[in-house]
Amino acid sequence: MAKMTLDQLRKLRESKQDDIKRRATEGKEGQIIIGMGTCGIAAGAKIVLDEFLDQFEKRGITNISVTQTGCMGLCSVEPTLEVIMPNMPNIIYGNVDKATVDKIVEDHIINKKLVNDHVIDRPASDIVGDK
Amino acid sequence: MAIRNYILVCGGSGCESSHSDDIYKNLIAEAKAQGVADEVQVVKTGCFGFCEQGPIVKILPEDSFYVQVKPSDAKELISEHIIKGRQVERLLYNKETAKQKAGQVEDINFYKKQYRIVLRNCGFINPENIDEYIARDGYEALEKVLFDLTPEDVINELKTAGLRGRGGAGFPTWMKWNFTKMAQNDVKYVACNADEGDPGAYMDRSTLEGDPHSILEGMTICGHTIGANKGFIYIRAEYPLAIHRLEIAIKQAHEYGLLGKDILGSGFDFDIELRYGAGAFVCGEETALIQSLEGHRGMPQPRPPFPAVKGLWQKPTCLNNVETWANIPVILTRGGEWFHKIGTEDSPGTKVFALTGKIKNSGLVEVPMGTTLREIVYDIGGGITGGKKFKAVQTGGPSGGMISAENLDTPIDFGRLQSIGSMMGSGSMIVINEDDCMVDVAKFYLNFSVDEACGKCAPCRIGGRTLLNILEKITNGNGELADIKKMKDVAHAMQRGSLCALGQTAPNPLISSLKWFEDEFMAHIVDKKCPAGKCKKLITYTIDPEKCVGCTACARKCPVGAISGEVKKPHVIDTTVCIKCGACIQTCKFGAISIH
Ligand SMILES: Cc1cc2nc3c(=O)[nH]c(=O)nc-3n(C[C@H](O)[C@H](O)[C@H](O)COP(=O)(O)O)c2cc1C
Ligand code: SF4
Ligand code: SF4
Questions:
Q1: What is the DSSP code (8-state) at residue A108?
Q2: B485 lies in which domain range?
Q3: Same structural domain, B157 and B283
């Protein structure tokens, strides 16, 4: 993208705003967002990310995107991630390791069920969210 | 049949002790009995952090929040909520009354007690993608500043907001900006203090890693307001991920024309560069930071002149902390009035704390100023680990102090923390329980300050060492009553005579420990005992022959072979060999070993 004018910036914001509300990324139906701050990575977030990619490849799942975000603030249960699937509430999982990833793929993504013992509540509302 | 509802039952240890497991089982059984087992899924979750109201049950997708649920409520939850689709009113958490009781502002998601302004994007957006920042109102404040507001408007907005610097001292941000704006000079600088060096602090790192553009936007706004075209971020080299993300963010902002020449066609030029610190705590002090930025050894300089008048290369420089910067864009999009309503009159807005130590839900929390320590420790933090007793919270790092149980209900803001002998500092909050020795904790912080002092001025250099020597003497069992007064005198001299705030505040942890926990100092000095059993020279491990069953577990665990005894006969510890490592005490299943 080249340098923008004020108008272009406003247009970009509008178009992206819908995307982020729906959390849609280019033709994908679901989204995994992994907390990858220093804390998350130290607790194994990178391994978790790789495992998702492996699992998706193995099972031929192509409609779920995997992205990263910063720290959600839930240090005691890192690594954390959010799973966003159509027609399901957005769910945050904590204490995720490779085995949990397998369960998330199997239960949550394929069978539309939550994974017991790993669901965590979002730490707080934010000002952008409650507008 | 597809699942319609998900029932989340809090499985945190606080709730677990109040029968959350029975609730979980009953809900599953009831769902089956009432024929909806295929339509609901019951899961156990991590702590919701609202343990005082537990056990907590949340039903999705409606997001109904039920509190103080009993196992016997399972039937009604299934028959009413799940089958008839009506919320069970009597169990619902009543936000309105709770809000009124606490006098909170309108839109705070109350049960969380948290409110995210600074961390608004952390954990939501991809920090390496500028589009996501822009989508969440990013760079909207910059638009306003470049095209709609005058620099005076911006300063007035900050004045109305009442934002105070989050780097520790709480200096009003609008004043600092105004001083730099008024300073006459053709070259001025903007600087960001990302040196974060307190033990236990990582708020700034998380903000930089999770939302780097908010810092860039804040700094650019400042540049336009005060008349600067160049900004520096002084960041510790030990933060490679934050550095990486900042580099990406700066590059993307350049590509979009949000940094560089003629930003958004406004004619305003601004650029930001990174500078790396080598991890000396004193370099976080503003005058030392400027020295280091210029390439000199990081030593504090006398003030005045303040950086706003003579800073980087003798030019007027506006230096703020990471968290301060992250607040700026929001204040300008939402307005100063809006911001002023959050928090307290003394300190509007929120504060991010890094909650660590002996606490269940350690983590980053952002709460409105005026939240009490009790709310942070018990409601958000879930209480003390291992069912132990709360003793104190250390806030403000090596410049701060201990807050004891007496002050758990003090609302936290800059003014009130100071009035109880602590300090906001950058926002580390370390929870201390009955297993910790306050003399030892005070020694830890003092040791840190003595190590990190630059050595330039005598009160800090000599005073710090003297205090540390006395503390060592006390923890070794050689303390005398006169030492208390001696420590107070030296501390006073340091507070009055040191050149920079490192030396001036270094005695704070000690002085506040002395104030609230004098009995512990007395126990060390008079009885030669360490009540918490931490100070090795003052404790002995013994085995109670009544309780010992002679299982030999401890003898096998002891790394120096200090424990002897025959099988099934009481064992004994040879205190001349014992190194007081505590391995045995953790091994004994019969509670036979104790510390005296
Ligand atoms: C020893 C010492 C260390 C400091 N470390 C930091 C730090 O790591 N980060 C920070 O923002 N401020 C730190 N400060 C405070 C700064 O000197 C300065 O007050 C602050 O960066 C100003 O920003 P603010 O007005 O936004 O709070 C430190 C002060 C002292 C005396
Ligand atoms: S108070 Fe301590 S750290 Fe500050 S200038 Fe003096 S010796 Fe250096
Ligand atoms: S572990 Fe406890 S019970 Fe066993 S020998 Fe040691 S003191 Fe006795």
A1: I
A2: 438-527
A3: yes
